[in-house]
Amino acid sequence: MYSERAIEAKYRRQFGYLAGYLPRDRGAVDDFHRDLAKTLSKLKGEQRDVPSVAALRRLIDVNGIIRMYVVQMIDEVPKKHRQIKSTDEMLAALNHIVRTAPLYTPIKKKQNFFPVSTLFTYMMMTPAGEAIFRNDIFNGAIRAILNEWCRFLDSRESQYVLNTGVNGWLSPPAYKMNKLEEFIIPDKSAPHWGWESFNAYFHRQIKPECRPVDAPNDPKVIVSANDGTVYMIAREVKRSDAFWIKGQPYSLVNMLNNTEYVDRFVGGDVFQSFLSGADYHRWRSPIAGTVRYAKVVDGLMFSDAESAGYDPTAGTYSQGYEASVNARGLVFIESDDPVIGLVCVIPIGITEISSVTIQVKPGDRLKKGDELGYFSYGGSSMALVFQPGAIKRFTVKQRHGNPDDGPPIKVNARIAIAN
After folding, report:
1. What is the distance between the alpha carbons of residues 291 and 334, in angstroms, rounded to a whole number?
2. How far, in Å, CA of 348 to CA of 355, rounded?
3. Contacts of 311 (CB under 8 A, 6+ apart)
4. Which of 161, 166, 309, 400 has the fewest CB atoms below 10 angstroms from its CB?
């Protein structure tokens, strides 16, 4: 069983903590579990399973291996943190969460915007949890639940959290935290300020003057595809590498889902960053060019690399690993400049729903800074992959130490100069 020190170190490596979606104070996670257990006790027998939760219930019932791992991961959670004590309670919790929208919390240490991640926080840390969250069938069932939750957050039923009350996303502290002055507010005089759903608020559109395209007529200036924080700049990346080991080297054949374009990138560069809740959650083209391929790849959720470890100085966490295994989009854009060649934009869903929506298709001509797609609610990361010889130099600095100490970047601002 892990010590409290090990649990705390592992917790601080979870993406939700890193990006500010999980509480800075882990005691708030335990409070969430206690409150959730009380709510479930009051609701017992009142809520029928939504279809996706009913499907997971059947899967656990008939698939003995999955049932074994689910039961074990719950039992392996240390008793002092085990408020969800059975498979039925875990399913009831999911059944409740997919009917709700996240509330804003003004107390920074207790801000908890990822209820599914919080539900699974301790389970994910266990040996059985690490195994089951890499199981394709189980992941497919969890993905169906997250998709059902996404449909709720896309609906008008989710508008109730878009208000100016203490726990509303339009309250003065939430307005400040999410930098709403930079975003287009549909109609501040309308209910919910004109946003038709929680997700519409989450992937709200930025004011163009707040994210101007750097050097729009200079193809040698490469711009950021997203708002975020730099996680890693890697050069001379290999076709295949052990992405699960400490350091999590990039493995192109896995990142690019073994597409026909893999070999064009061998020896090239990867630029990866992650988004926090206050960041703009739409992504733009880093170059001008033609879309050659655009597809969403199903992958894992809630899976961390054990190689991130419990060592507080590890400083690697799991985003490199997740670039190879998580649900992600692949958008290949070919520049008219043969030196730049092909660039791959990889939006990566990390936790919660993190739905990747691609808005472009093969054959589309793009200007630098044109919109490519957006993330629905959840944690997300972005990797850009460049061909060897394309990048002369990156204009932002590599991070040093922990992943959250990288420099901030803004969509449409320069990140590199091409050869």
Report:
1. 6
2. 9
3. 9
4. 400
Residue 296, burial from CB neighbour count under 10 angstroms (0-12, 13-18, 19+): middle
Cβ-based neighbours of 166, under 8 Å, separated by 6 or more: 106
Residue 222 structure tokens: 């490469």
CA-to-CA separations, 94 to 41, 64, 118, 140, 358, in angstroms, rounded:
14, 21, 11, 15, 27
Q: How many residues can be counted in the chain?
A: 419
**For the chain, percent of residues with pLDDT exceeding 90:** 74
316-350 pLDDT tens trace? 367 888 898 999 999 999 999 999 999 999 999 98
Name the residue type at position 380: S
State which H helix or E strand residue 192 sits in: none
CA distance 34 to 19: 24
Q: How many CB atoms lie within 10 A of CB 140?
A: 13
pLDDT at position 107 over 70 = yes
The gap from C-alpha 45 to its chain's centroid, in whole angstroms, comes to: 33
Instruction: Measure the CA–CA gap between 102 and 242, rounded to whole angstroms.
Output: 36
Sorted by sequence, the CB contacts under 8 Å of residue 351 that are 6+ apart come out as 14, 15, 16, 21, 114, 116, 117, 301, 302, 378, 379
Q: Are strands 289-297 and 365-366 parallel, antiparallel or unpaired?
A: antiparallel
Q: What local confidence, expressed as pLDDT, does residue 262 receive?
A: 97
**To the nearest whole number, what is the mean pLDDT of the chain?**
91
- In terms of DSSP H, where are the helices of 15-155? 15-18, 27-43, 51-62, 64-76, 87-97, 115-125, 127-132, 136-153
pLDDT digits (tens, 9 = 90+) for 342-398: 999 999 998 888 789 999 999 999 999 999 999 999 889 999 999 999 999 999 988
Cα Rg, the chain, nearest whole Å: 21
Cβ atoms < 10 Å from Cβ of 46: 6
Largest CA distance in the chain: 64
Cβ–Cβ contacts within 10 Å for residue 352, how many?
28
Bridge partners for 330 per DSSP: 295
- Between CA 252 and CA 243 the distance in angstroms is 10
Q: Which of 307, 303, 293, 291 is nearest to 258 (CA)?
A: 293
